[in-house]
Amino acid sequence: MSIIKLFLTFLKIGAFTFGGGYAMIPLIQVEVVDKNKWLDNEEFLDTIAIAQSSPGAIAVNSAIFIGYKLRGIVGALACMLGVILPSFIIILIISMFLFKYRNNKIVSKIFLGVRPAVVALIISAVYKLTKTSKIKKKALIISLITLLLVVFANISPIIVILIGGLGAILYYRITNNQNEKGELQ
Prior knowledge:
By secondary structure, this protein is mainly alpha-helical.
């Protein structure tokens, strides 16, 4: 694949997706995994996990990671520019329009109507990712507990991530110790 093909693929994704990063994930998956076969499904899910845990928008992070994996730094730049250029141009045009018509009631009602569609796109992306991933029951239970702690107990996501990381370290130390003891006997 050429740099131009990478750029045009991510330009198309950026141009035809509304709702931000999570709404782009299904389109990125279709283009990168299904159509072009640049990554397999497991690599794509790993890419999403890395992109989500990195600072910044998940779609931009995943575009950079995919571009870098496929064509190095030039590929990362091409994919990043492709995915952000449409958003930049659209936001620029909308801001010029909104500045001119910022007090118009019809314009504000239009933007209120777009919000539910954005939420639906995000839910769709989460559903598709969940459906294609091979999540075990333990991981699903941990995810649900985490969601409940963050939303209802008002615990900072950073604290939950730190506790999860420490828990994983302890879990793997215990299981590795048990495996080593089993191998010695």
